[in-house]
């Protein structure tokens, strides 16, 4: 039975990889390959490597934020199992439809001893925090995107994500109340376990750090094409967060393709000409693909190696 289960795990993982590869090809079907050729020029390689490093560092912080919710809601789970669930979910990002990410997390969570209800709750809490913190960090790019002739009093809504984030930090139980409300509206049983105040605050802080660090990759790419480093920093960091949130709201295309690039181009056009802003938006997409899928593939290769569980691991389970 264990051999059959292992075969199914391998088959599902392979299916996710193939589907993700199809999503990547769909995302790059227009100009992505041309930009990739430009990024191979010797003079830009140091910038590309620095951009990749920043994106990878942001991914690690994002993984730590997500794991905080999984452990807080799902219970004790090893770092190896968490990393494997995260990696499969990362491939799921590139399959059209956000439902695949939830399905992957729930399926992999069951193999790690976390029931579907708790895993779904952790997923929803983490996704909500990612969207909220991303929208708040995205406000760094808002001053450059302000419409000419529109007064500050008409742009009060720009502060809403920041205010909601502050409320969430002061009153972390608000997220739990929202989860309970969603369960009631969906006529589903209330979650068995909700996030603690400390877990919620830690997850939020790590998510904020993830956005700030990962956004540096876009700043590096804008400087590479001649943007002023000082002006480009808030636009790069905030624009990346805002564009990623916009892409996450586009449920059909793989990883928000189209909405993300459009938002990025508009933000970057405040510090670069339109043509170069579009190039940077596509270059950012390529950097994220390499960082996310490369890191996920390495994690899977390492964690899928069969090892004999130690008594300590068994006691934790």
Structure notes:
This protein has 317 residues and is mostly helical. The protein has one domain. The protein is built from 14 helices and no strands. The chain has helices at residues 2-27, 32-38, 45-74, 79-92, 99-111, 116-138, 142-145, 160-170, 173-185, 197-224, 229-249, 259-268, 274-303, 311-316. Helix 6 (116-138) packs across helix 10 and helix 10 (197-224) packs across helix 11 (229-249). The protein is globular. Mean pLDDT is 77; it is low at 147-154 and 307-317.
Describe, in short, the structure shown.
With 317 residues, the chain is mainly alpha-helical. The chain is 74% helix and 0% strand. It contains 14 helices and no strands.
What is the straight-line distance between the termini? 20 Å
> Which range does the strand content fall in?
under 5%
Rg is 20 Å
Portion of residues in helices? over 70%
**Secondary structure tally: strands:** 0
**What is the mean pLDDT?**
77
Spans of at least 5 consecutive residues whose pLDDT stays below 50 are 147-154, 307-317
Total helices: the number is 14
Tally of individual domains = 1
